[in-house]
From TrEMBL:
GO terms for biological process: lipid biosynthetic process; membrane lipid metabolic process. GO terms for molecular function: glyceryl-ether monooxygenase activity; iron ion binding. Residues 113-250 form the Fatty acid hydroxylase domain. The keyword Membrane applies. This is Fatty acid hydroxylase.
Length: 350
């Protein structure tokens, strides 16, 4: 296989149009009546939206190559690594836990509702832990490193994050009785929507999607999730149904008076792919090395990012509490200033 054929296959694979090409070449469109055929049509939508997002940014003179370069290089790096590492996490967990399921469901519309609620719960657990356990944050932080939101951010992940996520989500779903076939269908929906909500301002300026913002998790919610503003950090962990964010009090709307600042809080080279990929791992290794005693070394691995053995914690929770306290104090002072009666100065003093 020469280099041009390899590049051609990579491009076709990225845009997900191999299935469509196959149908056209064979002049056989009968598969469109099946779920697999429908998937072949839907898969290219996200890459095409990414292309349109870039074109729109160019037309409106908002395109910056650095906004896309780092996520793209992470994607290329993962493609290279994936040639040598293959982890069938989903199949492994199904085979391991299916016999221990509390009960069995079927592929029907009412079990789909149940299955999706359970899937969102499992996604919340994986995502919450990825933000609250520092060693897991090292896997997830690559996805949060880009300092602009666009559809390419969807492809920026540390290569071990997907197996970790699949083990957590699949295990919970199978143990709670979600049918494997139903689970794969849910994963397909989740994958499509999870990609779409990364669309940036160049592709969709207002990501609230009108009335849908009150019903489901929209691009606006996910932009909040990717923000490093103290109010926004560690919120909106769900993917489509925001029910669990509301249950566990991690739901946060985007505020018009608080502009989103994307990225992570530590100082980093924003366009350095190696820093985005390995930076948090190096920082953790340094903290573990410097920490006194085995207990503190262990705690640095399992406590939230920003935890310190000195007690001077700078976790997302602490930063959010400090922001809300400061904002509440400022509002209180403003209200007091507005409501305080104006005293007239006696005329005889003039």
């Amino acid at each position: 296989m020469n280099i041009f054929e390899t590049l051609y296959n990579e491009v076709i694979g990225f845009f997900g149009i191999s299935g469509i090409i196959e149908m056209v070449q064979k002049n056989d469109y009968s598969s469109l009546t099946t779920l697999q055929g429908i998937q072949k049509i839907i898969y290219p939508i996200i890459p095409l939206l990414l292309l349109l997002e870039i074109i729109r940014a160019v037309v409106y003179k908002r395109f910056k190559i650095e906004d896309y370069s780092m996520p793209f290089l992470v994607f290329v790096l993962n493609r290279f690594i994936s040639r040598f590492i293959s982890i069938a996490a989903v199949a492994f967990c199904i085979g391991l836990f299916e016999k221990y399921a509390l009960f069995t469901t079927t592929f029907t519309w009412y079990w789909l509702i149940y299955g999706y609620i359970i899937w969102e719960f499992s996604h919340f657990i994986y995502h919450f832990l990825a933000h609250k356990v520092r060693i897991l944050w090292c896997l997830h932080s690559t996805h949060h490193a880009p300092q602009q939101m666009n559809l390419f951010v969807n492809f920026a992940h540390f290569f071990l994050e997907a197996p970790y996520a699949d083990v957590i989500r699949t295990s919970i779903c199978i143990l709670l009785g979600v049918n494997p076939g139903l689970l794969f269908f849910i994963m397909f929906i989740d994958g499509f929507w999870g990609s779409f909500i990364h669309i940036g301002e160049n592709g969709l300026k207002d990501g609230r999607l009108g009335f849908l913002n009150k019903l489901i998790l929209t691009p606006s919610h996910h932009r909040v999730h990717h923000a490093k503003n103290p109010l926004y950090m560690d919120t909106n962990f769900c993917n489509l149904l925001n029910i669990w964010d509301k249950v566990f009090k991690t739901y946060q709307e985007e505020r018009d008076d608080l502009k989103i600042e994307y990225g992570i809080t530590r100082q980093m080279s924003p366009h350095n792919v190696l820093d985005a990929y390995f930076g948090e791992i190096i920082c953790l290794a340094k903290d573990v090395y410097r920490a006194p005693g085995l207990k503190n070394k262990f705690l640095y691995c399992i406590m939230p990012p920003g935890w310190s053995h000195t007690g001077e914690h700078k976790t997302a929770k602490k930063e959010r509490e400090a922001f809300l306290e400061k904002e509440q104090t400022s509002r209180g002072e403003a209200v007091q200033y507005k409501t305080e009666p104006v005293r007239e100065t006696p005329k005889e003093l003039f």
